[in-house]
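User: Structure please.
Assistant: Input sequence and predicted structure:
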Amino acid sequence: MIPEAREVHLSRKDRKVLEACCRSPVTLQRDLKRARIVLLAADGRSTRSIAKEVGVQPRIVSLWRHRYADHGLEGLQDKPRPGKQPIYTKTTDKRILKLLDKPPPQGFARWTGPLLAEALGDVDVQYVWRFLRSHKIDLVARKSWCESNDPNFTAKAADVVGLYVAPPAKAIVLCVDEKPSIPALERAQGYLKLPNGRALTGQSHDYKRHGTTTLFAALEVATGKIIATHSKRRRRVEFLDFMNSVTAAFPNRKLHVILDNLNTHKKNEDWLKAHPNVQFHFTPTSASWLNQVEVWFSILQGQSLSGTSFTSLKQLQEHIDAYVNAYNDRAEPFVWTKKKVRQRRFKGRRITQL
C-alpha cells in the first residue's frame, strides 16, 4: 500500500540546485532520479505518474517525497548504514604485537604466521599475515648489529673520522688491515640450463682445497689505491714486515695509519720509535667498520673472489694481484659523508638465552 502523497513545496534556491543536478552530465543516476522525483512532485504530479515517468516503483517516489518534505535537500542523501561489525579490532593488533615481544614456542627459532595464529587462538592466520604486511614486519629476514662498549668510543671515532674529513697537511692517511685465510678452492664451473629455459652460471658443490693465503692491504684514503701483499700467517712479524713495505712506498712522508684493535696491531712501540714518521690510530672496540679498507675487502670479495675456482694457491695469489692492479687503474677515494660522531645506547637492549 502506497502512503498518502505528501505535498512538496520547493524554494527557489532548492529548485535551482535540483535543476542543475538534472542538467549535469556527471550526476549519479540515483541522484538524478531523486531530483526528478522532487521536481515533478513540486509540480503537483501524482505518485504513480511520477513513478511511470522516472521508471521506478511508486513506493520509491513516496519515499523521496516524504524525505524531502521532512528534511529538505539533506533528506535526499543516503543515511549512514552501520554495516557489519569488524571481527578484528585494534585490540587484536595489540595482542599480536605483544605476542611478538615474547619468545617463540619452545623448539622454534622465530615466530611465524601460523604459530602466532595458534598462540592467539581466535585469530585467523590470513589476518595475521595482513597485519604483518601492513606494519612491514618481516618474520624471516634477520639483521645483526654490533654495539661498541668502548668508553672512549666518541673520542676514538672522532679521531678516525677527522682523518677522513680533514687529513693533516702534507701527510698520507692509510687504512690497514688483513683478510685472513682466503681459501684456494677448486670447483667445477659451467653454465646451468633450468627447465624453464633460463641459463645461469653455476659451480659444483664439491671442491678441492689448495691452501689459504692471508692478504695484508693498505688503502690510501686520498686516492683510493691499494697496496697489498700475501702471507702464510697473520702474526706480528708479518704485520710489521708489511708496514715496512708500506713505509718504503712513501719515503720521507708523515703516515697516519688507521688500524683495528687486533692484538698484533698493538704493543709495537719499538717499531714506532724506529719509524717516528708513522702514527697509529685505532678504531673503537667492536667498530672496525670505521676502517675504510673493510669496504674494499667487501668489494674484493664480491668482484674477484666469489664464485671463482683455483687449481693452486699461486693461482689465487696471482688472481688477487691482477685484481689489485686493475682496481688501482680506476681507483677513486671513498667519500665519508657522516661528520657527527656520537655514542648512543640501544633502548631496551637485552640478551636472551634460549
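The mean pLDDT is 88.
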